Amino acid sequence: MAAKAKARTMIVRMISTAQTGYFYSTQRLRQGPKLSAVKYDPRVKQRVLFVESKKTKKG
């Protein structure tokens, strides 16, 4: 039996650096660089840096 191929993309969680616990989920290429972006955090009502962490499975 052959091993299952890994997906080309992966789901990642973009976590706010304002430490509010707010996050966005997005997709990126598995081979690509780690993501970081300035996005809006509604808990502090301003734009802050969001950095990538791996999305964890529930359960």
TrEMBL record:
Compartments, record wording: Mitochondrion
GO molecular function terms attached to this record: structural constituent of ribosome
SUPFAM superfamilies found in the cross-reference section: Zn-binding ribosomal proteins
Any one GO CC term of the record: ribosome
Superkingdom per UniProt: Eukaryota
Keyword vocabulary terms for this entry: Mitochondrion, Ribonucleoprotein, Ribosomal protein
One GO BP annotation of this record: translation
Broad class of the protein's primary localization: mitochondrion
Family: Belongs to the bacterial ribosomal protein bL33 family.
Protein name: Large ribosomal subunit protein bL33m
Species, as recorded: Crepidotus variabilis
The organism's taxonomic lineage, starting at the top: Eukaryota, Fungi, Dikarya, Basidiomycota, Agaricomycotina
